[in-house]
Inverse folding.
């Protein structure tokens, strides 16, 4: 008899695969992380530090003075005798005109001997060359021609004076014959021997084109050998008061806002002077107009004068301009704020009216971001346009509505964005210096969002 056999399927015992579970957890975590990385806002952080912004305060100014032209009364050969940019008294000899050329020829012949130059004249010429060499800029190479003309004229002037004194008898005879005429100063002033077309320009009628040095033409009168009657022989600067004008940027204009005077350094000789000024607006450009009553004689022969504004470096909390943004706030009169029960925080009583007409009053403490003398600036988290608040101990109410913008940054110390108001002291193209210790403001070592316009209030921040 065949034996029955019953076959039973063997069930394997369940084994928990820890490796697979771990891999699954890691996989889902990585997928979640990748998802949140690409769907969340990434903002670079910047740590607020103490810093400075060095300001380029060098400018080329346009010098304007009261200049009176002296014209020749006769035609003929001309010789000059007084040094350029020196004080002349009324009646002092400035030049002579020889109508037949006889005396002029003797003066020129006697003056050809450079060995007759005095020690004083040689020292003056050496100083002039040294000043030009020390202040030479390759960008202004075209000025070398003007310098050459000025040096030749000054040398000729020194020689002429010595020559005139050596032929006094011939000079007297020519004067008696009315062939030799001396030109004297009609009044006190500083004599200069050049023209440039700027003689009638004042702070009221200058133009922006006048600041283009490359198109400037200076005519040295001392290079003339002959002159026509009615032509310019020289000119006198008759007033010690003069103006120096420089075009300035908006940054410099803002720095000068609360000033009426400033110390300036003349780069030509490194002397320092205090000068009052005013800001003028002309054709869309801002100009600083300095009013000076000194130093004029030193620069009488210069139409363009390089100066430096002696300002300290701006110091404070330094932040990048990209972090700066603006935000709208509700403006609420201070008289509607009060301290709540058991609280030292300022708040307002907000009145609510339900659909059934039931009225309830709640005390809320909105975040205050800025304070003026009469009002607080608050955000819209606790209050909205149209909300009604109560005046303490009064039946008066105020409807929320008035808004104003504040300039500030977003602080991200706690991982989410909080707006903070700032006060800019100075700003250039890349950075701003802001005031330290501003109420409701930014503090040293705070972390702020580098791109202020990419952030909103309470946004959770993932740093790059």
């Amino acid at each position: 008899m065949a034996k029955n056999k019953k076959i039973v399927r063997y069930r394997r015992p369940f084994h928990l695969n820890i490796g697979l579970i771990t891999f699954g957890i890691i996989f889902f975590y990585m997928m979640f992380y990748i998802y949140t990385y690409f769907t969340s806002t990434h903002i670079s952080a910047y740590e607020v530090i103490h810093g400075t912004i060095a300001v380029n305060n060098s400018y080329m100014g346009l010098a304007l003075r009261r200049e009176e032209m002296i014209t020749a009364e006769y035609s003929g050969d001309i010789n000059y005798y007084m040094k350029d940019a020196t004080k002349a008294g009324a009646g002092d000899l400035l030049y002579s005109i020889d109508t037949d050329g006889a005396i002029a020829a003797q003066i020129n012949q006697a003056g050809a001997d450079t060995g007759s130059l005095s020690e004083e004249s040689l020292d003056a010429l050496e100083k002039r060359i040294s000043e030009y060499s020390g202040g030479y800029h390759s960008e202004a190479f075209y000025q070398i021609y003007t310098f050459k003309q000025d040096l030749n004229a000054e040398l000729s002037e020194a020689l002429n004076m010595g020559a005139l004194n050596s032929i006094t008898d011939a000079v007297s005879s020519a004067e008696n014959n009315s062939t030799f005429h001396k030109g004297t100063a009609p009044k006190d002033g500083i004599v200069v021997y050049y023209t440039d077309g700027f003689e009638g320009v004042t702070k009221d009628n200058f133009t922006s084109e006048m600041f283009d040095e490359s198109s400037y033409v200076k005519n040295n009168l001392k290079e003339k050998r002959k002159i026509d009657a009615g032509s310019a022989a020289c000119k006198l600067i008759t007033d010690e008061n003069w103006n120096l004008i420089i075009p300035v940027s908006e940054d410099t204009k803002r720095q000068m806002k609360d000033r009426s005077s400033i110390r300036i350094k003349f780069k030509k000789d490194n002397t320092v002077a205090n000068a009052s000024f005013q800001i003028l607006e002309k054709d869309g450009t801002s100009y600083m107009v300095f009013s000076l009553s000194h130093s004029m004689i030193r620069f009488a022969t210069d139409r363009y004068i390089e100066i430096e504004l002696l300002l300290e470096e701006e110091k404070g909390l330094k932040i990048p301009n990209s972090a700066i943004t603006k935000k709208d706030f509700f403006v609420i009169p201070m008289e509607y704020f009060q301290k709540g029960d058991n609280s030292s925080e300022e708040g307002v009583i907000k009145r609510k009216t339900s659909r059934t007409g039931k009225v309830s009053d709640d005390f809320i403490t909105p975040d205050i971001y800025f304070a003026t003398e009469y009002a607080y600036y608050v955000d819209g988290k606790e209050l909205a346009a149209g909300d009604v608040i109560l005046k303490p101990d009064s039946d008066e109410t105020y409807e929320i509505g008035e808004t104003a913008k504040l300039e500030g940054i977003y602080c991200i110390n706690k991982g989410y964005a909080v707006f903070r108001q700032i006060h800019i002291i100075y700003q250039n193209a890349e950075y701003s210096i802001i005031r330290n210790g501003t109420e409701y403001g930014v503090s040293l070592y705070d972390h702020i969002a580098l791109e202020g316009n990419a952030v909103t209030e309470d946004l959770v921040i993932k740093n790059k």
Remarks:
- The chain has a mean pLDDT of 83.
- The longest strand covers residues 271-282.
